[in-house]
Design brief:
The protein is mainly α. The chain has a domain of about 160 residues. A three-stranded antiparallel sheet has the order 1-3-2, sandwiched between helices. β5 and β6 form a beta hairpin. α11 crosses α12, α13 packs antiparallel against α14 and α14 packs across α15. It is extended and about 110 Å long. The chain starts with a helix and ends in a 22-residue tail after the last helix.
Length: about 475
């Protein structure tokens, strides 16, 4: 009951589901298709947004324990979850679903089911195409007019992929899968770009299925990942071969299948290490508590004490074994990646060698290059000779004038520097003045002004 109420509360929290519009949204508003097209489209749009966001939040349960965030599970359970205590059931819900299928906002889930094989998928696509074509014929108008006067049909048990949710999640996952993963084993983050976007479907969900819309707490289900990968393949964003997916351009190769299998084994071993570590930590904590209780004089039954100790030791042995397997698998993955790099380098060297041979042959070898250089020197000499014949040799008088003007400028600058030097040292006494300055300094005067400057008469001592 709480889950159903949560779904109802999520829908009623939508801005379009206000008290003024609720009676119309829960009524059988199919006649509005003919009498009020704007009202019909507004009601359909309100239900479309509410269903899309409710599915995206993960509040609608599917057939199993997982909650799909890309698939709307229509049927009696959905109707019951949306039933309001005051307004009852949404009477036009099936008409809304049909309209959303017609406009392409919902697609039957069977169209994305690649696992049963091509025949079932083709049949599903054919049925969807036939339904779409029927809704675009004049006969559908008579059918709609006839059914509008009849009781609303029950909501059929059908799974629909919400196209907007699928596109948003695919954009997020495809972008993440082509970058080093931010979680999981560290060995996956060290791979080169060649094998980085290659995964099994299970690893895609493990590493990139969390928060596909940016909000924490939402996780892609296994069915969601199948839908997302099918969309990525159909739009050219990925290639799939069995359980192996390569994101980005290119097809799935034999090397990709081998690397994807090792990646899956690495992730499985990493999960085992985490699980065994958690078990060992829990039992060790229990052992510490029991030891403290025995020291305090409140011992537990001996069987319980020994149980936790044996379980802790067994889990620790499991951690050691799983860690050894993980290290071996990570080493194997690194060697595969390194071997691929060596193969690429060898191929690049072969291509470069072929290109160099072709370019050297095009150049004609050393003899041709020397002959071309000599011919170029002769051509340059001939061009210079022709230029001198047409314009004459360079004027020697012009060069002499340039040299003379340069020397004059240098001499003028040197004379200006020499004239400025005495002014900078005008306070420095020289010659005979220097002797008088030395004599006065002997009398204990700290500073003697220059003699060529006017002096003030010293103050007469007062003998009074």
């Amino acid at each position: 009951m709480a889950a159903k109420q949560s779904v109802l509360e999520t829908v009623l929290a939508e801005a379009e589901f206000n008290e003024r519009r609720l009676p119309s949204l829960y009524s059988d508003f199919r006649p509005l298709r003919e009498s009020n097209v704007d009202g019909w489209e507004a009601n359909v749009a309100a239900w479309a947004g509410a269903l899309r966001r409710t599915v995206r939040s993960g509040r609608l349960a599917g057939d199993g324990d997982e909650r799909d965030v890309l698939t709307l599970h229509a049927g009696p359970a959905l109707v019951q979850a949306l039933t309001s205590p005051s307004l009852g059931k949404p009477l036009a819900l099936q008409a809304v679903l049909d309209e959303l299928v017609r406009t392409g906002e919902l697609v039957p889930r069977a169209a994305f089911d690649v696992r049963p094989g091509l025949t079932r998928r083709a049949l599903a696509l054919g049925a969807a195409a036939a339904a779409w074509a029927f809704r675009h014929t004049p006969a559908y108008e008579y059918y709609a007019a006839y059914t509008d006067g009849r009781p609303p049909p029950a909501v059929a048990a059908t799974d629909y992929v919400v196209v907007a949710n699928m596109r948003d999640a695919a954009a997020t996952v495809v972008a993440r899968a082509q970058q080093p993963p931010t979680c999981g084993p560290a060995a996956l983050r060290a791979l080169s770009a060649r094998f980085r976007p290659v995964y099994t479907v299970g690893v895609v969900r493990e590493l990139f299925g969390a928060a596909p819309f940016g909000a924490a707490g939402v996780q892609l289900s296994a069915a969601d990942v199948d839908v997302l990968v099918a969309h990525a393949v159909a739009t050219g964003q990925a290639a799939r071969d069995g359980d192996v997916v390569r994101f980005g351009p290119g097809r799935v190769s034999d090397d990709d299948r081998a690397v994807a299998a090792v990646k899956q084994a690495v992730v499985d071993a990493w999960r085992r290490v985490e699980a065994q570590t958690h078990i060992a930590t829990s039992h060790r904590a229990a052992v510490r508590r029991l030891v403290a209780a025995r020291v305090d004089g409140q011992p537990a039954p001996p069987a319980m004490e020994k149980y936790h100790l044996r379980a802790a030791r067994a889990a620790e042995a499991g951690v050691a074994s799983a860690s050894a397997s993980l290290l071996q698998l990570e080493d194997l993955l690194a060697k595969l990646d390194s071997a691929a790099g060596h193969a690429e380098m060898a191929a690049l060297m072969e291509q470069s060698a072929s290109a160099l041979v072709a370019l050297n042959a095009e150049a004609g070898g050393v003899e041709r290059a020397e002959a071309a250089a000599a011919a170029l020197d002769d051509a340059v000499a001939d061009a210079d000779a022709i230029g001198e014949a047409l314009t004459g040799p360079p004027d020697a008088d012009v060069e002499a004038d340039v040299e003379a003007e340069w020397d004059a400028l240098v001499a003028e600058a040197a004379a200006a520097d020499a004239a400025a030097a005495p002014a900078a040292g005008a306070d420095v006494e020289t010659g005979a003045d220097a002797d008088l300055v030395a004599a006065l300094s002997g009398l204990g005067l700290d500073r003697v002004p220059a003699l060529d400057k006017p002096q003030r008469a010293p103050a007469q001592p007062d003998h009074a």
